[in-house]
Design a protein that fits this description.
- The chain is mostly helical and 178 residues long.
- Helix content is 75%, strand content 0%.
- The protein is built from five helices and no strands.
- It has helices at 2-24, 32-69, 73-110, 118-121, 126-155.
- It starts with a helix and ends in a 23-residue tail after the last helix.
- Residues 5-20 have low confidence and may be disordered.
Length: 178
């Protein structure tokens, strides 16, 4: 009877634990039809946005075409020249920024600063970029020293300069003369 009573008590405990576990993790369940409906709704929204963007792009292109059709030959030539100048300026800017990035990476490597910071220091103006690098370098060194000092304090170790201690100066027994 003792054994039967213990078994029934264990069964009650297990069923109670099962109820608690199932009560904690009740995830919503969807039918395939509901999932399909949600997906279709989202696809329809995306299609509608895409169609609106396409219609707007077509309307813009048509209005630009009509505007250009009304221009005289001289105005078209002037506009084409302006577009080419803009293109050239964009290319020059791109080349300048690549050169600045290269210069910045070189300066950072000379100062033993990770190259990951280059994007934050690059500037179109070379003087301003160099000033950014110098100020960052100073800050980097200060914060690096603070971090090292904090680590040393936390570890309780005092660094010693091993290069100044004589190495085996009075111990000739290990020296082999040939």
């Amino acid at each position: 009877m003792n054994q039967n009573g213990a078994e029934s008590n264990n069964n009650q405990t297990n069923s109670t634990a099962g109820e608690v576990n199932s009560g904690e993790k009740q995830e919503p369940k969807f039918t395939q039809a509901q999932v399909n409906e949600l997906i279709q709704k989202r696809v329809n929204e995306l299609n509608k946005k895409s169609e609106e963007k396409t219609k707007q792009a077509v309307a813009d292109a048509l209005s630009e075409y009509e505007r250009k059709a009304k221009l005289t030959e001289e105005e078209r030539a002037t506009e084409a020249q302006k577009e080419k100048l803009k293109e050239i300026e964009e290319r020059e800017h791109s080349i300048t920024m690549r050169e600045r990035k290269s210069d910045c990476l070189l300066a950072l490597s000379k100062k033993n600063i990770p190259a990951d910071f280059a994007d934050y220091l690059i500037d179109n103006d070379a003087e301003k970029m160099n000033a950014n690098i110098e100020s960052f370098s100073t800050l980097w060194e200060e914060k690096l020293m603070e971090g090292v000092q904090a680590k040393l304090k936390a570890s309780g170790a005092t660094p010693t300069d091993k290069s100044s201690t004589p190495s085996h100066a009075g111990n000739d027994s290990n020296v082999v003369i040939i």
